[in-house]
Write a structure and sequence with these properties.
CATH class of the largest domain: Alpha Beta
Strand order of the largest sheet: 5-4-3-7-6
CATH superfamily of the largest domain: Transcription elongation factor, GreA/GreB, C-terminal domain
Number of helices: 3
Number of strands: 7
Strand content: 25-35%
Shape: elongated
Length: 160
C-alpha cells in the first residue's frame, strides 16, 4: 500500500485490532506451537490428523497476524470526539429517513474492520456511506440497495 492508501479507523477500532493481535501472538501462537510439538511426538506425520490440523491453524493464525499488522500500519486513526463538520464525514452518526416508508435508520460511518450493520456501524466504503458522505441535513440521498433503488432524506447527523 502506498501513502494515500491509508485506511480510516476510529480509536476504538484500532484498539480492537491491537487486542486481537496480542491474543494471537501471546496466547494462540504458543498454543499452536505446543499442539504441533505434541502431534510430532505421536510419530508418523504423513497420517497425523492432529499435526495437519495444528499446521492449518498455524497458517491461519500467521496470516491473520500479518493482516492485522498491515491494517494497523496503514491505519489513519481519526478522533471522532474532535470532529466538527456541516457535512457528513467519516465517524458521523447519521439518521436517515426512508422516503418511501418514512422509517428512520441510524448508522455510524466507521472503518472497514469496525463495520457491523446489526450494531449500526457501516463501512466508510459501503455504498450507503459513499452515498451520504458530503451531504448535509435535508439533502436527499439516492442509493442502490440490495432491495433496489432507495431514497433517503438526511434528518440529522452528529459526532460523539
Amino acid at each position: 500500500m502506498s501513502g494515500q492508501d491509508r485506511q480510516p479507523m476510529t480509536a476504538q477500532g484500532k484498539l480492537k485490532l491491537e487486542t486481537e493481535l496480542r491474543q494471537l501472538i501471546h496466547v494462540e501462537r504458543p498454543s499452536i506451537i505446543k499442539a504441533i510439538e505434541e502431534a510430532r511426538s505421536n510419530g508418523d506425520l504423513s497420517e497425523n490428523a492432529d499435526y495437519d490440523a495444528a499446521k492449518e491453524r498455524q497458517a491461519f493464525c500467521e496470516a491473520r497476524i500479518n493482516d492485522i499488522q498491515s491494517k494497523i500500519a496503514n491505519s489513519e486513526v481519526i478522533d471522532i470526539a474532535n470532529l466538527k463538520s456541516d457535512r457528513i464525514i467519516f465517524g458521523a452518526h447519521i439518521v436517515l429517513c426512508d422516503l418511501e416508508t418514512e422509517e428512520e435508520i441510524n448508522y455510524q460511518i466507521v472503518g472497514e474492520d469496525e463495520a457491523d450493520v446489526k450494531s449500526g456501524r457501516i463501512s466508510v466504503f459501503s455504498p450507503l456511506a459513499r452515498a451520504v458522505i458530503g451531504k448535509k441535513i435535508g439533502d436527499i440521498v439516492e442509493f442502490k440497495s440490495p432491495k433496489g433503488e432507495k431514497e433517503y432524506e438526511v434528518r440529522k447527523f452528529f459526532f460523539r
